[in-house]
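Hey team,

Sharing the glutathione transferase run so nobody has to redo it. Sequence (222 residues) first:
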Amino acid sequence: MATAVKVYGPPMSTAVSRVLSCLLEKDVQFQLINVSMAKGEHKKPDFLKLQPFGQVPAFQDECISLFESRAICRYISEKYPSQGNKGLYGTNPLEKASIDQWLEAEGQSFSPPSAVLVFQLAFAPRMKIKQDEGLIKMNEEKLKKVLDVYEKRLGESRYLSGDEFSLADLSHLPNAQYLMNTDRGELFTSRENVGRWWGEISGRESWKKVVEMQKSPPPPSA
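Structure output:
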């Protein structure tokens, strides 16, 4: 029996939840090991051996270790092509290239403004940090422009890279989930195609399981 891969980090982390969603889509057995950011466990020497930048997630599969959630998702999809969702990262070079271009769009265009909004709107209040209204407004405008591009694209195809759900869509779930739970959810729902797309991708069983994991007590630390 294959050894379960290990994911280090709290499921509340957007990057960790991206990896968890991919593992569930691919039906890959995994062990989630909590890393307490509040206690500084992500900066301890043992963890830095896995993730030299001291961030989450870190990932282990037998003798190899990886970091950066999108790279981990690509690895999982390539290593387990016949498990779970077989088309998650495409089945030919053209499909993979299309998925990759929208993954790049997510990482370079969607993630920067949405990550700022997630912190300012979802995390700052919990941490009792004053919100920066100027920063919120600036990044809301940036995100609107990105979602306008998505609105056009999603009027042409069911999902970002084509007519099948892929890593390109999955990668948007973590930040979008947090924003949908704030008063900025209308950024998605006010756009017909984006709203339809969000409803479909957030309704997947794999993502529902991740959201439940975020609500549960964290597993033991390493």
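DSSP finds ten helices and four strands in the chain.

Ping me if you want the raw files.
A.
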